[in-house]
Amino acid sequence: MTIQTSFQTGPVAHEGPEVRASAAGDIRRMQELIRGMAVTQMIAAACEVGLPDAVDDDGTSLTSLSGRLKVHAGVLTRLARALSSFGIFDVDADGGIRHNEASRLLRTTTAGPSLHWAARFWGMPGIWRSWGALSHCAGTGEEAFSHVNGQDFFSYMNGSPEEEALYQRYMASGYPGRYAAIADVLTVAPGERVIDVGGGTGSLARTILERNPDAHAVVYDQASVISALTGAPGDDRLSTRAGSFFDAVPTGGDIYILSWILHDWPDEKAESILRNCRKAMGAGARIVVVDRVLQESPKDCDPLDLVLDLQMLVLHGGRERTLDDFTRLLNAAGFSAPRILSARPEFSVIQARAV
Ligand SMILES: C[S@@+](CC[C@H](N)C(=O)[O-])C[C@H]1O[C@@H](n2cnc3c(N)ncnc32)[C@H](O)[C@@H]1O
Questions:
Q1: pLDDT tens figures, 175-216
Q2: Same domain for 208 and 320?
Q3: Distance between CA atoms of 346 and 124, rounded to whole angstroms?
Q4: Ranges of the chain with pLDDT below 50
Q5: Could you give the C-alpha distances from 329 to 112, 161, 322, in angstroms and in order?
Q6: For residues 257 and 290, is the Cβ–Cβ distance under 8 A?
Q7: CB 137 within 8 A of CB 152
Q8: Is 350 in the pocket of ligand 1 (CB under 6 A)?
Q9: What pLDDT score does 309 carry?
Q10: pLDDT at position 231, please?
């Protein structure tokens, strides 16, 4: 029996009557998973050349698009055709291309959620090379990023403004509604000061201020990130501070937020960030950690959370953590056991008090 799959170019190794229909399904599934790297690059390349923004809602011819985008017409057609076979864009035999619900998510100019920056981040060279060295992590227990890129992730980003900007846009857009969902579960009393430690673009701080008109916020991040925000705050309740959370954290806050910070780091570094927050805080001040909270059993975990766990390993030597892991880290740094304010697959919000 020959197993037919759209990828197959010759007889499969297990060809024979013993191959059951269910095995054919498994083979097909494995083939698709193994080729996942190609799909990542197909999506990233389409975004990089500007295809999603260029396609009109009424449909466009790929030949005319290739002229507008200044790309090879034949390759653009093949790329679009391959993407459409995975349900991204509708492409017809005459070379016409239209958006569908999936491809619309890849536009930069959209009133709704955009995964454009996420697609480009996952496909960009430094990230791509790092995943290619996952077996280095397995062999050493260390991150792959420095091994293949010659410097750690954040130093590399500091020296590469375009990739840094792309990374920050991914952080701010990759999980639509994240900042609003965090701000919704935070209780901020009038006059309280929120310090967003590693606050990136300041989007979370702004969202918190929108919901709490009498609050103040400070975005604290590396100098290269803060200098890119110069002139951006536009609200006298919002200020910025540059520095490293491994050296110190601004004092005087009532609420310290670590949103997608701790998962970037292995335990000893995560604890050092928490200790620096604790030093800056008065007793009773709150720390709010936003990160994925893994379930103990992999069967109960969202697969994307476990991929992100490996992404943290590959890029930073970091990890996603269970609630027990967070409790241990927080206790060691001088905080109470955390309370869960909100639990979701991509990010949970947990809060503890300085003791
Ligand atoms: C994963 S991003 C999270 C950004 C933001 N908090 C959010 O939730 O979207 C990690 C942030 O940590 C910042 N960061 C990395 N190393 C830092 C350091 N040593 N001191 C301060 N910020 C740092 C990065 O610049 C980046 O903005």
A1: 778 999 999 999 999 999 999 999 998 999 999 999 999 999
A2: yes
A3: 22
A4: 1-11
A5: 37, 33, 11
A6: yes
A7: no
A8: no
A9: 96
A10: 60
The amino acid at residue 125 is P
Ligand 1 centroid – CA 90 distance (Å): 38
Of 119, 136, 157, which marks where a domain is finished? Answer: 119
199 shares its domain with 303: yes
Q: What are phi and psi of 293, to 5 degrees?
A: -110, 110
Instruction: State which residues form the domain around 162.
Output: 120-171
Q: What integer pLDDT is reported at residue 342 of this predicted model? A: 95
Cα angle 193, 265, 288 (rounded to 5 degrees) comes to 25
Q: Is residue 1 part of a domain?
A: no
For residue 30, being part of any structural domain is answered with: no
Distances in Å between the Cα of 354 and the Cα atoms of 35, 283, 285, 288 are: 48, 5, 6, 11
Catalytic residue among 99, 116, 216, 263: 263
Tell me if 316 is assigned to some domain: yes
Query: What is the model's pLDDT at position 9?
Result: 46
Does 318 sit in the ligand 1 pocket, CB within 6 Å? no
Q: Residue 206 has which token pair?
A: 């702004």
Task: Please state, as a whole number, how many other Cβ atoms lie within 10 Å of the Cβ of residue 189.
Answer: 10
Burial class (CB in 10 A: 0-12, 13-18, 19+), 93: exposed
Comparing CA positions, the residue from 69, 39, 40, 41 lying closest to residue 54 is 69
DSSP-derived 3-state class of residue 354: strand
Scanning the chain, the segments in alpha helix (DSSP H) are 21-34, 36-48, 51-54, 62-69, 73-85, 101-104, 116-123, 125-131, 134-140, 145-149, 153-158, 161-173, 178-185, 203-211, 223-228, 267-280, 303-316, 323-332
Q: How many domains does the chain have?
A: 3
Instruction: Mark whether 220 and 286 lie in a shared domain.
Output: yes
245, part of any domain: yes
CB 345 within 8 A of CB 305: yes
Q: Whose CA is nearest to atom 18 of ligand 1?
A: 244
Distance of CA 97 to the CA centre of its chain: 29
Q: Is 222 in the pocket of ligand 1 (CB under 6 A)?
A: yes
CA distance 349 to 340: 6
